[in-house]
Structure formats: structure tokens, C-alpha cells
Amino acid sequence: MVGVSDIVITGIGCVSPSGIGYDAFRQSISSGKCAIQRYETLSDEPRTTYFGAAIEDFDGKLYVTPRKALKVMGREVQLAYSAAHLAWQHAGLTEVTPEPERTGVVYSSEMIPGEIEELRPAIKACKEAGQMKFDNWGATFAKHIFPLWMLKSLPNMPACHVGIAIDARGPNNSLALDEAGGLLALEEAADIIRRGDADLMIVGGIGSRMTPTRAMYRPTRIYDQHPYDEATVLEPRCIPFDRRRRGIVPGEGAVAFVVESRHHAMQRNANILAVLKGQSSRCGRTLHYLGGSCTALASAARDAMQQAGVDPTDLAHVSAQGFSEFNLDIAEATAIAEVAPNVPVTAFSSYFGSTGAASGLLELAASIAAVRDRLTLPTLGYEQPDADCPINVCMQQQRTNQSDILKLSFTPMGHAAAVVVQCMR
Predict the structure, then answer these.
(1) Considering the entire predicted model, what is its pTM?
(2) Is 70 exceeded by the pLDDT of residue 185?
């Protein structure tokens, strides 16, 4: 058995709108670059405009081996695999062979809607006189769809493919708890190591709210769907805790951490990036429709800080979920004001939107990168405080000598998770 402080992070791989690879990701966020753009696809200008943060110039062939595996991977699975590949390299494991039975994988995933283009041939074959004949679908579908089509989009495929690639024969699991899933996956991996069932775990998250099907069916009351206006289109679209906030801005991303026992990391002379000092999760009742649970979030944060033995003065910053939605931001700000008053708050969603099941770990990666550089980074675009969000939102880049981070994640349905991480320099 090992202690909580002996769970360490030794590698980080990012595939994100803010860069592919840890170094590119770190440089992008440090420069204050916002990856959120206006997209013409699915836009209906008289009614609404589609804004989001997509990953540009991604090519799975650069990361996925063997190449033939691409045939059974949808884009989201390729993103997840690539993040793990980059984390493995970043941790210095390319020339190392960890014991397979002592190596495992936990991924945070979500519903993967699949790619519309793959259904196009079957749909076209069902047309008669320009009309869709639904009676033909049963007989036509199997003739025009790749036989392993469904395997490309199952939520457990990221952990499956990563496990096969690194010959990880230890614990393998997939969690589907939306925005809370990433930190919950990290907690599960730490518990697996702590109880002695593994020495090394790949912990990852994959989420995309940018695919056409997810974009079409996003909840209308909490996502940014305000009318397009040329006069205001250049304003920040994702500004958590600012009174001008318009709703959740979708993004996509994949991230993976290499997590080990300190003993295992020291045995192979690994570079330790951060130490997991505290972890907690809760679920509570929401006070508003899809409004999250302030009580659950505050309770999880308080417990994680108590485990870590830190108080607010020890924190470099609070890394917030930062949905940029009216009720969700109030719930989170209320929890932060209760457990970490006056601590600088950074919401990295202002850089790359809300990436669903990847958000917790991707935002944690951004926080670790910043604090290792002795920086607290601003919440982009934040200018007009909201009296209902009485927290110290960071407005400009500042130096910090503190090394601990409180990372919060929660869902609109009431799930909440928190971790305290100490960054090594």
C-alpha cells in the first residue's frame, strides 16, 4: 500500500484545439491564444451562429499503429489513442517495457455519435423518386455499411485500443460521466495503484461536442445559441463568470496522463511532473434545470483539500470548470467562494471551449503546465464581474510561487469531482 502523496504524474499527451502535443499545448495557452472560432457548418445566421473550438490539422496516421487499426477507429477514438501515444512518449516510456500485468488503462468517454458520412451510401440507396423510403432501410443498411461500423464508435474503444497498443493486461475501464469523468478516471486509476493492483496507469479523456449530430442536439437552454450580430461577433464567446456570458461553447479534445506509484517512477528514473495529493467526488440535487450542484462541488473540494493538507493560501489557483452559462457559473462560483475565497480562478474553457468528458483532464493539464512555469493564467475575455459570482477571477497573467492546484469538475446533472495536485518544478 502507498499513500495518496505517492501517486505521481509522469507524462501528459494533448490533442486539442490549442495544440497537439504537450509543448505545443503549453505554448499556446501561455501566449493567451483563444481557439474558439465561428463555424459556417450547421449555422443558420438569421437565428443562431455556431461557435466552437475544433482540432485543426489532425491526422491519425501520424500516431496510430498498426496503420490498419484506423479502419476500426472513428475520429474520436483516433484522438484518444493519439493522446495516449503522446503521453507515453512524454513519460519516456518508448524504450521501457512496463510489466504488462501491472499496467492498466482508464478512460473518460461519452456517447460517440459516429460520422454521418458513413451512413450516406445506405441513405442514398433507400431513396426512391427523391424521397427516403424507410421500408427499404432494413434490407439496404447491411449492404452499404462497413461490417464493423459500430465498433468504431463504442465508448469503451479508447481504453480498449490503448490497452492493446501498450500491452496493458491490468485493470481496464471506461467511465461515462460527462464533464466529471476525467477527474473520476484519475481518481480510479490512483485507487487501483494505491491498493496494489497496478504500478502504472494510462488515464485519458475524450470528448467532442463539435460533431454535427452533437451540435444539432445540444440543449438549447444552456449552450451558446444567441443571434449572430456582426457588431459583437468578435467579442469573446466563452467568458465564464462574466455577466455577459452567453452559454456553453462546445469544443473537442483528447488528453492522456501517465500515472504511476512514486516507487515505480523512481525505479525507472522518470521525470515527475506533479503529485496527486487529494481527490474526492460527490453527487447532489440540482436547484435549477441542468444547473449543477453547488453543495456537491463544495463538499468534494473541501474533502480533497483536507486530504491534501492544504488551505486556500497554499493554492496557486483554482482551475474551474467554467461552463460560461448563467446558473452553472453561479453554482460553481458559490462553491469556490465557500472553500477557496480570494484564490485566483482560471477557467481554461475560455481558451478551448467545453470538451465534455475530456474537459477535466485537459484543463488540469493546462493548470499543471502553467504552474510548472510559475504562472497563473487569466480567464480570457473576463472584464465585467457578475455580483452573483463573487470570486477572484484572474484577469491577467501573473507570477506565482505556489505549487498546489485545486481542479474542479462538475456536470449540469449534479455530479462533482475535485483533485488537489502539487506541481513539481
Answers:
(1) 0.93
(2) yes
